[in-house]
Amino acid sequence: MKIKIAQTIDLFLEEISKKYSSNTVRKYEDTLSLFKDFLTSYGDVSYSEDKNGRIILTADTSEFEFGHTSQFLEWFLIRKVMAPQWMMKAAPGIIKKYFKWLDEKGLLGEGVIEEVLDTTKQASKDLPRVDKAAELLFNLCSINSSRYFDRVFDDDAYMEGYGELKGMLEDKLYLLYEGERIGPIQVTKKIAEHLKEGDTINLAVGRVGKKWIPLEVGNVYPK
């Protein structure tokens, strides 16, 4: 059976509104509204534009495919940390309940619910860690950007983008940017405590002397 994803979200919210408090339902609404917006931008599912140029999600539940669903869920569960702090903690559980509801209604393909459960379980474990790492890196970058605001970094002394963590030594990191190993990158021991080998950091760094200094950070993505 096929049904529009946007319609299933409305039906799911209508059903839980009979069970939960208005405050809890509002959290579900906010999270799933963001999820719906995310699908049209990053989920690689069907959408269209209305006459006013607004993006409308047109995909049905058959587009939640095995292998593909876990990929955009992992991306969403990290991207949404730009939302309120409570959503960082609540989103994995809310997404899990929504997909379990879909599965109970017979609206998911074979194997999809298993990978959703695995993805949300892992996200619940990893998100607090990488969120704290990103917060601490942001604070460090703010200090460094102020300290070196008038410094011009040559091309060979500047790197930005997504770097995979390939080594840590106390308060120093080594990141792999598209095959190029950059380091040591000077951070703090507290930051290093919240990172793991294989994590990906969206980080801009500049070389000062023999060390690289974090200048701007985006998200931190768990392995």
Describe it:
- The structure is a single chain.
- With 223 residues, the protein is α+β, with helices and mostly antiparallel strands.
- 48% of the residues lie in helices and 22% in strands.
- The chain is built from six helices and eight strands; from the N terminus they run ααββαααββββαββ.
- The protein has helices spanning 5-16, 22-42, 68-79, 85-104, 112-147, 189-193; strands at 47-49, 55-57, 158-159, 162-169, 172-177, 180-186, 200-208, 211-221.
- Strands 3, 4, 5, 6, 7 and 8 form a six-stranded antiparallel β-sheet that branches. A two-stranded antiparallel ribbon has the order 1-2.
- A hairpin with a 2-residue loop joins strand 5 and strand 6.
- Helix 2 (22-42) packs across helix 4 (85-104) and helix 3 (68-79) runs parallel beside helix 5 (112-147).
- The longest helix has 36 residues, at 112-147.
Order of helices and strands: HHEEHHHEEEEHEE
| Largest sheet composition | 6 strands, antiparallel
Specify the helix fraction band: 40-55%
Helix count?
6
Rg to the nearest angstrom? 20 Å
Q: Outline, from the CA principal axes?
A: elongated
Oligomer: single chain
Low-confidence stretches: none
Query: Structural class of the helix and strand makeup?
Result: alpha+beta
The average pLDDT score comes to 89
Strand content: 15-25%
